[in-house]
Design a protein that fits this description.
heterodimer, A: 326 residues, alpha/beta, TIM Barrel, eight-stranded parallel sheet, two-stranded antiparallel ribbon, 16 helices, 10 strands, 15% strand, globular, B: 208 residues, Methyltransferase, Methionine Synthase (B12-binding Domains), Chain A, domain 1, Rossmann fold, five-stranded parallel sheet, 9 helices, binds CO-5-methoxybenzimidazolylcobamide
C-alpha cells in the first residue's frame, strides 16, 4: 500500500510531525553532527521511532544541502540548522553559466544513507520519507531570496532558467531517495509562499508537476510543504497535480481540507515555535485536539507541525501531540 | 501634473529605469523636488502599501516598487538637500541580534523613506551598539524588526537600554504583537510597513 492509501484508509487521523532534530534530546549529539554524519542522524530518528511508534520516518530537513552542492557557502553552528551565507549567483549571466552538479556528492549523501538504513529495516505499513528543498526555494537560496523574488517579476526568463536547473538537480536527487527505498519525498517550498498566487503556480507548481511526472508511481509519492502560503494560494498549489500537501501556520488547514477533493491529503499546521517550543503541555494538547475535532469528518487530514520542529522543542509537547485525542 | 502620475505609476510597477528617467527629466525641467516627492513618489508608496495590506499585491511587487522608489530618491535627495528641505525626522532601523531576515525590514525602511523620513539602515543582526551607531548619526527613533521567536526577546534589551536616554523604540515583525510591545514597554508597534509609517507620524506628531 502506498502512503496516500494508507492515510485515507486509516480509521484514525494519522500524525506526521516534521521532527528529526528533537530526536537529539533522546539520542544526544548536536545538529551539526546529525547533518554531517548519517549514522548519528539515524540514531536520532530511531530514538523518536522507538518512543512514538510512528508509521512514518523522515530524514532531517536540511535545506542547505542542495545549494551547497551547487557551490553556495554554508554557515554551520552546533545547534542551529545549517544556513546559506550570501549569494552564489547575482545576475542572469551567472544563472546561464552555472552547471547543474551531480547530487551524489557532498552532504546529500548523508541524507541518502540515512534513508537507506531506515528503509532496510522498515516493516510493512511503515513509510520512509526523504527531505529535500523545492525548486523555487533552491533557486532563491542560490540567488538570494529577496533578489530572486525581484527577478521573478523583472526577468522571468532568467528566473525560469535557474528554476529549471534546480528542477534538474532535484529530479536526480529525488531519484536517489527513491532508489534508496523511500516511499515519498517531503519537498519544502517555503519561499514560493511569498509569491502572488499566479506566480506561485507558474514559478513553483508547474515545476513540482514536472518533478512528479518523472518520479511518482504507485509506490512513490511527493509531499509538497509550503509554510508561507495562505488559503488564497490553494488553487495555485493544487495546480502541481500531486495529492499530498503540507501547510504552515498562515494556511487555514481546516478550510483547505474541507475544500479539496477527498483523495487529496492536507497536513498541518501546529506552529513549531509556539506549540512545540513555547506552549505548555496542556496548551499543546488542547490545540491539537481542537484541530482533530475540526477535521474529524475528514479522512484526508494528517495532524502535523506547520514546519520543521527545532532542536529546542520540548519532548513533553511532542508526547502531548501524539497523545492528543478526539 | 501628468508627469507626476507617470512617476507614480512607474514606481508602483517597479520600473526602476523609467522612474530614473522621469524623475531626472522633471528635475531638469525645473520641477520642484518637493512636488515630485509629494505629488508622485510618496503617493505611489502609500498606494502600493495599502494594496499590500489588503493582499492585492504580494512581497515581490513590493520589493520591486521599493527598488524603483530608491532609484527616484537617489536623484531627488541631493537636490532636496541643496534646497535646505528638512526631512520629517531621522530614524534608524535594523533587524535584531541573531536574526538575518531582512525583507520586511527593508520594506519598512523604504516606506518610511518614501513618507519623507530620513532612515539609517543598520542591516541585520544588530546589537545595542549597532543601534547606538544609528543614534550617533542623528536618529532619535530606533525601529527594531524580528522574525524569530528566539530573537524577539532581544527587543526588550533594546527598549530598556534606550528608555533612560529619551530615545523612542518601536518594534514589529511577524511574531511580534501589540501585547508584547506593551509588555516590554516599547513606544509603539505596527503590524506592517504601512502601519509603521502611520505609527511614526503619530509618534513624532507629523502628517506626511
Ligand atoms: C515598527 O517596526 C516594525 C514594524 C513592522 C515590521 C517591522 C518593524 N519588521 C517587519 N514588519 C512588518 O512589516 C513587514 C511588511 O509588511 C512584515 O515583515 P515580515 O518580515 O513579517 O514579512 C516579509 C515582508 C515577508 N516574509 C519574510 O520575508 C519571511 C519569509 C519566510 C519564508 C522566511 C525566509 C524568507 C527566510 N528564512 Co526564515 N523565513 C520564515 C518565513 C516564513 C513565512 N512564510 O513567513 C520564518 C520567519 N523563518 C523561520 C526560521 C525558523 C528560520 N529562517 C531562517 C532563514 C531564512 C532565510 C535566510 C532562508 C530567508 C530570509 C531571507 C531574507 N533575506 O530575509 C533561519 C534563521 C536564520 C537567522 N538566524 O535569521 C531559520 C531558523 C531556519 C533554519 N532552520 O535555518 C521561521 C520562524 C519561526 C519563529 N517564529 O521563530 C519562519 C516563520 C518559517 C517557519 N514557518 O518556521 C511585517 O512583519
Amino acid at each position: 500500500m502506498n502512503i496516500i492509501d494508507f492515510i485515507l484508509r486509516s480509521s484514525e487521523t494519522q500524525r506526521l510531525p516534521v521532527a528529526v532534530y528533537p530526536g537529539l534530546l533522546l539520542s544526544g549529539g548536536t545538529v551539526r553532527e546529525i547533518t554531517s554524519d548519517w549514522a548519528l542522524q539515524l540514531k536520532a530518528i530511531k530514538a523518536l521511532q522507538a518512543r512514538y511508534k510512528s508509521p512514518f520516518a523522515l530524514t532531517a530537513m536540511d535545506l542547505s544541502v542542495e545549494a551547497e552542492n551547487f557551490g553556495a557557502k554554508v554557515l554551520f553552528s552546533e545547534n542551529e540548522v545549517p544556513t546559506i551565507d550570501g549569494r552564489l549567483l547575482t545576475n542572469a549571466e551567472d544563472i546561464e553559466k552555472i552547471k547543474v552538479p551531480s547530487p551524489d556528492k557532498g552532504r546529500g549523501i548523508v541524507q541518502i544513507k540515512t534513508l537507506e538504513a531506515l528503509a532496510k529495516e522498515k516493516k510493512s505499513d511503515e513509510f520512509i520519507l526523504g527531505g529535500l528543498i523545492g525548486p523555487y526555494s533552491l533557486a532563491g537560496r542560490l540567488f538570494g531570496i529577496s533578489e530572486f523574488m525581484e527577478i521573478t517579476l523583472l526577468e522571468p526568463e532568467a528566473a525560469h532558467c535557474l528554476i529549471k536547473k534546480a528542477v534538474e538537480h532535484q529530479i536526480k536527487y529525488a531519484k536517489m531517495f527513491k532508489e534508496a527505498g523511500a516511499d515519498a519525498v517531503f519537498m519544502a517550498e517555503p519561499a514560493a509562499g511569498l509569491l502572488w498566487p499566479e506566480g506561485l503556480r507558474d514559478f513553483s507548481s508547474v515545476y513540482v508537476k514536472e518533478i512528479a511526472a518523472e518520479l511518482e508511481d504507485e509506490n512513490f509519492k511527493i509531499i509538497l510543504h509550503n509554510c508561507g502560503c495562505t488559503i488564497e494560494h490553494l488553487d495555485a498549489v493544487l495546480a502541481s497535480g500531486i495529492s499530498f500537501f503540507h501547510f504552515g501556520k498562515p494556511t487555514d488547514v481546516v478550510k483547505a481540507v474541507h475544500t479539496v477533493p477527498d483523495n487529496i491529503i492536507i497536513a498541518g499546521n501546529l506552529d513549531p515555535m509556539e506549540m512545540f517550543v513555547q506552549a505548555s503541555v496542556e496548551e499543546m494538547k488542547s490545540k491539537a485536539e481542537e484541530l482533530l475535532s475540526q477535521t474529524a469528518d475528514k479522512r484526508n487530514f494528517v495532524l502535523s507541525s506547520g514546519c520543521d520542529i527545532p532542536p529546542n522543542a520540548k519532548l513533553a509537547n511532542l508526547d502531548a501531540f501524539y497523545a492528543a485525542e478526539l | 501634473m501628468a508627469e507626476l502620475q507617470k512617476i507614480k505609476e512607474a514606481i508602483m510597477g517597479g520600473k526602476r529605469e523609467e522612474v530614473s528617467r522621469l524623475v531626472q527629466a522633471a528635475l531638469t525641467a525645473g520641477d520642484s523636488p518637493v512636488e515630485i516627492l509629494e505629488g508622485g513618489m510618496i503617493p505611489a508608496m502609500r498606494e502600493i502599501g495599502d494594496k499590500f495590506s489588503r493582499n492585492e499585491v504580494y512581497v515581490p511587487q513590493m520589493l520591486i516598487a521599493a527598488r524603483a522608489m530608491q532609484a527616484g530618491l537617489a536623484l531627488v535627495e541631493p537636490v532636496l538637500a541643496q534646497t535646505g528641505h528638512q526631512p520629517l525626522g531621522k530614524l534608524c532601523i535594523g533587524t535584531v541580534k541573531g536574526d538575518l531576515h531582512d525583507i520586511g525590514k527593508n520594506l519598512v525602511a523604504i516606506m518610511l523613506k518614501g513618507a519623507g523620513y530620513e532612515v539609517v539602515d543598520l542591516g541585520v543582526n544588530c546589537d545595542i551598539n549597532k543601534y547606538e551607531e544609528g543614534i550617533k548619526q542623528g536618529a532619535n527613533v530606533v525601529v527594531c524588526s524580528a522574525l524569530l521567536t528566539t530573537t524577539m526577546p532581544y527587543m526588550k534589551d533594546v527598549v530598556e537600554h534606550f528608555k533612560s536616554k529619551g530615545v523612542k523604540v518601536i518594534i514589529g515583525g511577524a511574531p511580534v504583537t501589540q501585547n508584547y510591545a506593551d509588555q516590554i514597554g516599547a513606544d509603539g508597534y505596527s503590524e506592517d510597513a504601512n502601519g509603521a509609517v502611520k505609527l511614526v507620524d503619530r509618534l513624532l506628531g507629523k502628517t506626511a
